[in-house]
Design brief:
Helix content: 55-70%
Shape: globular
Radius of gyration: 10 Å
Strand order of the largest sheet: 1-2
Order of helices and strands: HEHHEH
Number of domains: 1
Number of helices: 4
Strand content: 5-15%
Length: 66
């Protein structure tokens, strides 16, 4: 697991705190507010529109080309 993967998982843990599902737009806004690295922001921005559970978001983000 890379540092980027660890940062991504920490971000998702914080973003989904007390939330069952979050839209891709909300994830983008929360990522911007969290001041994530450019690499992670690019990955989150590439997430297809829709609502995600935390495990679904993590899986979709891992499937995106890096």
């Amino acid at each position: 697991m890379t540092d980027g993967d660890t940062d991504l998982e920490v971000f998702l843990d914080q973003a989904f705190d007390a939330q069952e599902r979050i839209s891709s737009g909300d994830l983008q806004r929360r990522a911007l507010a969290a001041d994530l690295s450019a690499e992670l922001m690019t990955r989150i921005d590439a997430l297809p529109e829709g609502e995600y559970a935390q495990d679904e978001a993590l899986e979709a983000l891992h499937e995106l080309p890096t």
